[in-house]
Design brief:
single chain, alpha/beta, Rossmann fold, 5-stranded parallel beta sheet, 9 helices, globular
């Protein structure tokens, strides 16, 4: 992006605590773009991505209102890597286009720093739009516990989603900063606050 806005890519595996980190960053005044939410917008009824998903995966992935039922779609793609890639080829370009438009708007507004949270940032090539990358990491036992509590997924489903991502070691090796979410919420808040405050800002 342009020189006026610093784009920080925030990533991490499923259940590592990215949501908590984005909440903390927002409380600190950061502008945060969550790619998952943008992705949901990208395939709302009437969009090109919505039509492509239905044509590729069938009407069974629709809810009673004609919207994409993410749980039904998830059951298909997370157990089949070929189908997952098929979905990603539809959703990622549409999501990226919307995200770039939002970054451009923030740049026009004079925003200095924007956090773009992307679960599979490296796998999708989104690291190319980030100036620096932060990864959130957590012990595997905590990951399983969080995912099961939040999503109601069983261990096999959780393992399938973890297997679809880079490993912790791979993410750490190619990230600029690691946020270790292995303690209390208060410790996480303090850690994220220190990192945020270390970024040079004009105002």
């Amino acid at each position: 992006m342009g020189a006026q806005v610093l784009v920080i890519g925030l990533t991490g595996g499923i259940g590592t605590g990215k949501t908590e980190v984005t909440h903390v960053l927002r409380e600190l005044g950061a502008v945060v773009i969550e790619s998952d939410k943008v992705a949901h917008e990208s395939y709302e009824p009437g969009t090109e991505a919505h039509g492509l998903i239905v044509s590729r995966f069938g009407d069974d992935v629709l809810d009673e209102f004609g919207s994409i039922d993410r749980k039904s779609l998830g059951k298909i793609v997370f157990s089949d890597s070929a189908r997952r890639l098929e979905l990603e080829e539809i959703v990622w370009p549409a999501t990226r286009k919307l995200t770039l438009a939002r970054l451009e708007n923030e740049e026009k507004r004079g925003t200095e720093v924007v956090i773009v949270e992307v679960p599979k940032l490296f796998e999708s090539g989104w690291d190319q739009i980030a100036d620096v990358v932060w990864t959130v990491e957590s012990p595997s036992g905590e990951i399983n516990k969080r995912v099961e509590q939040r999503s109601g997924l069983g261990r096999s489903e959780t393992d399938a989603r973890v297997a679809a991502q880079l490993t912790r070691e791979e993410r750490i090796a190619i990230s600029d900063r690691v946020i270790e979410n292995n303690g209390t919420l208060e410790e996480l808040i303090a850690q994220v606050s220190r990192i945020w405050e270390s970024i040079p800002k004009k105002k």
